[in-house]
Design a protein that fits this description.
Number of strands: 4
Bound molecules: zinc ion
Shape: elongated
Radius of gyration: 25 Å
Strand order of the largest sheet: 1-2
Distance between the termini: 24 Å
Number of helices: 5
Helix content: 55-70%
Number of domains: 2
Strand content: 5-15%
Oligomer: single chain
């Protein structure tokens, strides 16, 4: 089976419910490159916003007069720098999206609680106010509908919100 990150054969690492195994160092590298690209996106976004604000200022009447007097630089130059910064931003965003969707796909299939379990659990909680089995409103937890051991995923579509107090639920939660 191939590691979903580096595509080379892997038997040692974090096993996933879709039968693949992700190398520990690949997973670490992926989370690292995600945060790097998130930072790059934020830096580039700020840069584009600043230049756009500058362009808007330059397009006012006073800006036009200043340009006419040669006090500020050429408008076309600024526009082309904005275009370049926007291209760089798009590239960073696409790198971020790629890393993010690969990581989510891995988390979806993790056989143990994924690192973003709290966020997934909170999202399920928003959909169900009470236990989906008995209507109770206490001791509630997110549960897998199809257990991970049976090929279920950590995707929201496979999560439900149930209490743990009754035997039926308890058995279900242990199995999942
Ligand atoms: Zn790998
Ligand atoms: Zn219940």
């Amino acid at each position: 089976m191939a590691c979903p990150v580096c595509q080379s054969p892997s038997t040692d690492g974090v096993p996933l419910s879709n039968g693949t195994v992700v190398h520990v160092h690949c997973l670490k590298g992926l989370t690292g490159s995600l945060s790097t690209s998130e930072r790059a996106v934020s830096v580039r976004r700020t840069r584009v916003a600043r230049m756009r604000a500058m362009l808007a200022r330059w397009n006012t009447t006073i800006g036009r007069i200043e340009r006419f007097l040669g006090r500020i630089a050429d408008l076309e130059d600024l526009e082309s720098r904005i275009a370049a910064a926007e291209t760089a931003l798009l590239a960073a965003e696409s790198a971020q999206n790629d890393a993010e969707s690969l990581l989510l796909e891995i988390y979806d299939h993790m056989l143990e609680y994924p690192p973003d379990w709290a966020a997934r659990s909170a999202a399920v909680r928003k959909r169900y106010v009470v236990c989906s089995e008995c209507g109770s409103d206490s001791m509630l937890q997110a549960h897998h509908v199809v257990p991970l051991s049976k090929g279920g995923t950590n995707r929201l579509a496979n999560l439900t919100w149930e209490c743990t107090r009754f035997d039926g639920h308890l058995v279900k939660s242990i199995l999942s």
